[in-house]
Amino acid sequence: MIFRIAFRNIWRNKVRSLIVITAVTLGLAGGLMAAAVMTGMIDQKVRSVINTELSHIQLHDPSFLKNYEARFVIAGPAELMQKISGMQGVKSVCGRTRLTGMAASPNSAAGVQIMGVDPDSEKKVTNLYKLIPDSSGGWFIGSRKHQVMIGYKLAEKLKVRLKSKIVLRFQGTDGNLNEAAFSIGGIFGSSNSVFDETTVFVKKTDLDAITGGDSGIHEIAVLLNDIGSIPLMQSRLKKLLPATVVQNWMEIKPEMGLLTSVIAVEIYVILGIILFALAFGIVNTMLMIVFERTRELGMLMAVGMSKSRVFRMIMLETVFLTLIGGVIGMVLGAVLIAVLHRFGIDLSAMSQGLAAYGVDSKIYPFITREFYINLTIMILSTGLLSAILPARKALQLKPVEAIRIE
Amino acid sequence: MGDLRLAWRNIWRNKRRTLLTAASIFLAVFLALMVRSLQMGLFDNLIQVAIESHTGHMQIHKKGYWDDKTIDNTMLYNDSMAGVVNNTKNILVTVPRLEYFALASTGIQTKGVMIIGTDPLKENTLTHLKSKMLSGLYLDQSGRGVLLAQGLAGFLGLHTGDTLILIGQGFHGVSAAGKFPVRGILHLPSPVLDNQVAYMNLPSAQDFFSADNRVTSLSISLKNPDEIGQTLGELKSAVNLDKFEVMPWDELMVEVMQQLKVKTASGMIIISILYMIVGFGIFGTVIMMTNERIKEFGVIVSVGMQKTRLAKILVLEMVFIGLTGAMSGVAGAVPIMAWYHFNPIHLWGSMAQTYIAYGIEPLLPLALKPGFIIYNVATVLVIVLLTCIFPVRRVLRLKVAEALHK
Amino acid sequence: MKKLVLTILMLASMQLTFAQGLSAKEIIRKADDKNRGLSSQGVMTMTVIRPDWTRTITMKTWSKSREYSLVLITAPAKDKGQVFLKIKTEMWNWVPSIDKTIKIPPSMMLQSWMGSDFTNDDLVKQSSIVVDYTHKLLDREKVRDMDCYKIELTPLPDAPVVWGKVIMWVTVSGYDVWMAEYYDEDNKLVNVSNNYDIRRMGDREIPTRLEMIPVNKKGQKTVMHIDEMKFNTGIDESFFSQQNMKKIK
């Protein structure tokens, strides 16, 4: 009975109801959007670091990390990589030779990290190959020998361009100095200019041919299916290889951790504030409504409706309004997020113009299903709880006064 | 003026209504200020971390040094340069440094070391270097003792009391060679630096590199960072820009800048969402208030008041309510902001750990600047004025007969 | 008819070759060999010239074939006593003031040697002007009053050489490199080296002043002056050792 009364009450004053519904809708959609934008932001940062440079997990020989000396290779790399790629949760694996050396051009020279890779496996693990604009060559395309991929910052420093010749000099795994000419087959641009300035990629097979032996693998990079499985995979790998250093991307680059943890805190604070704003708003609005209906409520109580029923009626009204607003809000929020996710929010309008070499200034908001559900529940509960105060206030109205009010 | 007094009295005739409306405005201002204060506090904090880790707010170098950081691109740090710096009021401390590479020799191995020659007291003021000490004594002004980063010391197998042997190339190609007692070990948060850096006092470095009175950079920390633009201009006009370059931190740390810009942009999105929510709160209250008073308006107009005059009075009422709400919002927010500005929030969890790892205290002060306070109050007041459109239209289109029958 | 034309052409080209007596490659080889001899020993002065400073270093040098060399710095004071040893592609440095020998790692190799326009790596370079290039005789020209063969050197595709091409003028009478121009791949001139003052040193006559000039850096060059030099003095390989670095005077 109360249900029907409450329901009809809502539709009696459309304006009032619409206002409450809209407030809840905006609150929920807004909250979801805010969370999605901030999650998208962390994601963008993390994703570019993981996908371009670090992958989820890297393995090295412990001595290698101290001074990057070429002799500290990983033992039995081929079988190891085979085993790891067979593990549950692993998306792809690749191994690299990593040598310190110099790159020289007629005009200049620079210290570089030379990565000897297998181009195809590397493509499965990092997205660097996508960061080579069409005008700047490609990832080891064609059959030209001795191709090298360098960052655009390095190309600038050495004053070279596509197809230019540079000489790479390095100390091989056997300790001997080697040098050879390479031709620039591709110029990449990541969002990390230091990486672009100091890292070059060549085929491991070319390195082996130059040094006359197997250069060995210094670094194994592992890409997982799900970033959340990092702790689990890390501990599994550590058990499997107690003598190898198994690090996740945050351990390799701690400064990323600072930025992402800052944003994580912000998300909770902002959401808290939005919830507060919503609660306040609903309390405010419902109070207004209750006072507006003083006469009506007074009448009801005068003709015998018990206080508890009045209370329940108002609560129910709020429940309905909140639910309606909630459903619309959920749908609206989900749709907006999906649309923005597809097209991305381009922040480059607010940041400096960046060169053709893609620095990712687009955010792709998204929200995990868990978050979505949790947030919705939180916001709806807030709405309901905020109705308590106005409902109680309604009970305090004195029927006699109520009737007398104009 | 009659209308003003009328408007003022009208407001207080129905206290409840007025207070509820003012409350929604109070909420908007209060929350907007709190959120902006938090966002700006975080932003400034991140910059602070970046600056204090080494760079300072701005640096002076010999022109061309930043693009080609070699020992030959050093500048003279003499009385005239010191004079320029001393005369600039906003400067808190100027740290002269001589930074360059050399080789550390241990038995058969040689390892590249980054030597940072600096003024011990000034360095500590800028980067709190002393707090990063793990063992041994801090640098003194006149001895030859060096501080080794932990990773470096570990690799070289050196402890406090041992000797560091350095070889390199100094100014104008003169050979550099020397033995230095290890005075202490410290820990640097960045793993790359922790494996590479050695600190000594400036005279020792200048002697080693045969670079008398020369420095690679002057790192400047400001008393009031908000005036950075002004100070930058002052310095640029005081030095000879053909010989020197003056660079602010955002040019020195382009990567950090890029990340911060992304953060600013998303921060704006968040605050817009907040405004949408609280803005609607105000709008909703005003609509309800107007609808409630339709009968009252009908009566007033029917006894002769012109609709335009009534509309004007309504606007004045809203202005009063708006100002009341806004002032109370400011009055509520400012003390909290001030409190947490001078007694910064203590960070916790992984966020705190990351700050500590960078040698920065895990504190977050809320921002407290008149600029953004005024800006946000003004925005809310504009929203209030915009919402006035609704009641004004209602009044101007009022059909007295209908109104009286409500 | 065809056969006749072919024969004439062949004879004509042989005439050209015989007129020189040697192919371009042979000319370069002779110049290269003359420069080094089987072994050599001498005293040299290097002057580094920059827009706002100048530095002069004197040294005693010993070398054997292309693989071994030892350099002792005798002046100025701060550098005196330092010894550089090169064996094949590795290099060591002895610093008496701290009683330490260090092996120069690859990262230091491309730093300039003693502040000059030569890099450490120039001194240990594996690339050879004979082996790593193809040679083409372009012309005969007079340069600074010397009659020279003008030869174009084009690096082999895999050769570890940064240059796009090098042009060398080798004196006809003495097979000395008289001048060289180093170009990048866009045919822009990057370095020029000029040799002067042919004098008798030991058993041969060679240019005693060598200047290396980076074209794009104003007011900058390095000058090597050979004060004394003797060739084929019969130094043994064992002379070039780390122990000897500390003993040499």
Structure described in brief:
The complex is a heterotrimer of chains A (406), B (406) and C (249). Chain A is of the alpha+beta class and 406 residues long.
**Span of the ends, CA to CA of chain C:** 72 Å
Shape of chain B: elongated
Percent of residues in helices of chain C comes to 10-25%
Strand order of the largest sheet of chain C: 6-5-4-3-2-1-13-12-11-10-9-8-7
Alpha-carbon distance between the termini of chain B? 32 Å
State the helix count of chain C.
5
Structural class of chain B: alpha+beta
Using DSSP, what is the number of strands of chain B? 14
The helix/strand series of chain B, from N terminus to C terminus, equals HHEEHEEHEEHEEHEHEEHEHHHHEHEHHH
Q: Supply the number of helical segments of chain B.
A: 16
Query: Approximately how much beta-strand content do the residues of chain C carry?
Result: over 45%
- Biggest pleated-sheet summary of chain B: 6 strands, mixed, barrel
Account of the 3D structure:
The complex is a heterotrimer of chains A (406), B (406) and C (249). Helices cover 56% and strands 17% of the residues of chain A. With 406 residues, chain A is α+β, with helices and mostly antiparallel strands. In chain A, helix 2 runs parallel beside helix 13. The longest helix of chain A has 41 residues. Chain A is elongated, with a radius of gyration of 31 Å. Chain B is an alpha+beta fold and 406 residues long. Chain B contains 16 helices and 14 strands. In chain B, the strands form three sheets. Chain B has a six-stranded mixed barrel with strand order 3-4-9-6-8-7. In chain B, a hairpin with a 2-residue loop joins strand 3 and strand 4. Chain B is elongated. By secondary structure, chain C is of the alpha+beta class. Helix content of chain C is 19%, strand content 46%. Chain C has five helices and 13 strands. Chain C is globular and about 55 Å long. Classes of the chains: A alpha+beta (406), B alpha+beta (406), C alpha+beta (249). Chains A and B meet through helix 2 and helix 11 of A and helix 2, helix 5, helix 10 and helix 13 of B.
